[in-house]
Amino acid sequence: MDELVNYSEKLMQEASEKEWIERAKENPRWFEPLYDKYFSQIFRFLYKRHADEIVTAEICSEVFYKALIKIKHYKDKGFPFSSWLYKIALNESNQAFRKKKYHRVIPLDLLKSENLFDEFPLEDSQHDVEALKWAVQSLKPKELDIIELRFFNEMSFKEVARVLNITENNAKVKCYRILDKLRIKMNVK
């Protein structure tokens, strides 16, 4: 039996992600390497949104359960498999916010991330960070999703578009409009 397990593990190591996906469509056992590869990434994404380990674990398990159930319908459209998982995670997270009335959390360390902070001509002072936090928290949930995916998760516009089911150009336009909105709220040019 150990030889069979070792052989199975060896096959999983040698297979590419596309092979894992195709095999997982036929046999759920092949979903395991996908789960192993993406669990911590999706967990971190959800934890940044909820800042509660128990809630995050609950939502994360639901994400991977749905991914396992729906993998038969997954089609490679030139995007990373992770963007499909992020889409499921974003939907599950937003559903949790609606159903259970969880509050969205935006940690200060995320706001200080160079990606978002570089968009504004600010000093790294506590006042500027607080102003940015206030402005970001005033965004609508869908606007915040775009900022979060683009700047906190460092996704390309193409990946943001895939996760949100919009065009890449639309993702760019929306992102720049949101940044302009933040600049106005913060009184910066």
Automatic annotation (TrEMBL):
SUPFAM superfamilies: Sigma2 domain of RNA polymerase sigma factors, Sigma3 and sigma4 domains of RNA polymerase sigma factors
A family per Pfam: Sigma70_r2
Keywords (A to Z) from UniProt: Sigma factor, Transcription, Transcription regulation
Molecular functions (GO terms): DNA binding; sigma factor activity
GO BP term, pick one: DNA-templated transcription initiation
Limits of the RNA polymerase sigma-70 region domain: 34-101
Domain RNA polymerase sigma factor 70 region 4 type: 135-182
Annotated family: Belongs to the sigma-70 factor family. ECF subfamily.
UniProt name for this protein: Sigma-70 family RNA polymerase sigma factor
Organism, as annotated: Marivirga salinarum
